[in-house]
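hiii, so i know i said id send this last week but things got crazy w the move. better late than never?? heres the sequnce for the chain we talked about at the cafe, plus the structure i predicted for it. fair warning i was half asleep when i ran it
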Amino acid sequence: MVIPTEDMIEGAPLTVSELTRLVRESLEIEFSRVIVEGEIANLKIPSSGHVYFTLKDESAQIAAVLFRAAVRFLKFRPADGLKVVCRGRLTVYEPRGTYQVIVETMDPCGRGALQLAFEQVKKRLAAEGLFDEGRKRPLPFLPIRVGVITSPTGAAIRDVLRVLRDRFADLEVLIHPVPVQGPAAARAVSRAIDEMNRHSLDVLLIVRGGGSLEDLWAFNEEEVVRAIVRSRVPVVTGIGHETDFTLADFASDLRAPTPTAAASTIVRSKIELHEKIDLLSRRLARGARAVFQEQRSRLGIASSDLGDPTVLLERFAQRVDDLAGRLRVAWRERGNGRQRELDGVVRRLLRRHPEAGLARQRGRIETARRILAPAMRTGLGVRQQTLRRLSERLTALSPLGVLSRGYSLTFKLPGMTLVRSTAALSAGDEIRVRFGEGSADATVKRCLDRKEKEPKIEN
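okay and structure toks below
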């Protein structure tokens, strides 16, 4: 780096870029490692995944940026108003000429990052209802197939198997080994939960021995919590010691304080079950004897109140015979009445039988036929005579009839115009004369008016 001297300053002027670069180089050398405490404000997380914010106190503020590569190592979520300690280096963002802190690590003040992350995730998942008691399932009374997710080398698996064997040796236990600590633990546990759900299990145990918050952190990861919630098999957790609580405990159907307690919770002791069965059997036998004695006493009292059943049977038998005789008489009388009603109905139906009405109608039709036939013949004769007279009159009045008596019709050619007067004709006109039978064409030689003497017409 070149430190500008007084001669350089008094010489040729620097460009803005040159001056900004000199300032950046000076800051990066002088403040290559800084630790700064302040309150987060103006937090922004664009789609790039980088975190931009301002660190401030009562009288000053400075820009800061946490690049995405460093964000993934944070155990908590930065938020406005959170007081933090940032470690990084100081630099200048040349395009804007502002100096800023490039944050490499960040921890909350007062509380550890893991504790803060625990509270943040717990609050968010609780708001989704993942810890609600209403969604948790009851455990089976006596499971037959038990799944266990834990480390294959820890003390927890030995304690669990010992308790299960001592309390109920007939159990079938399926073990899924996983790492229970470290960066790969959360993913391994969540996958193990999903894989164990493919087996026909009655209950699933997730256990781990004690440790620090960092050691147990895999069971606070969101993916483990969601895997427990979507499990079809009831889940019991026994993680850490009595005072250790993880988010997996809140999501499970039952939280046991230790792995040993988890195994004891899901499986009842075989000896205790036998003792309870014997106790219940004795109580049942005593209850049955007491009920039997009570019913026997009640039967004796009822028997004394009833008297001799033979006498009662004879009395009721005589009563039955009496009622049967009265029933037969009533049935006979009722049947006779119904028969009389039926006979009356039959007589009325016979009177109204269609055959009788048809016979009457046939007689009326025959009488009408005998009367109508002569009347129709007489009427037809009269009408035939009238028709002949009218036909003769029409024939006489017909133009053809007139022509047949010697008359004729004259038409002027060529249009066949009927000639009604000689005024319509002139000498030399062609005419056609229509007779009663046939016609003849002629030429007019001369037209005569009424004053001239016409030839006499003979009949």
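btw The chain is about 45% helix and 20% strand. thought thatd interest u
miss u guys!!
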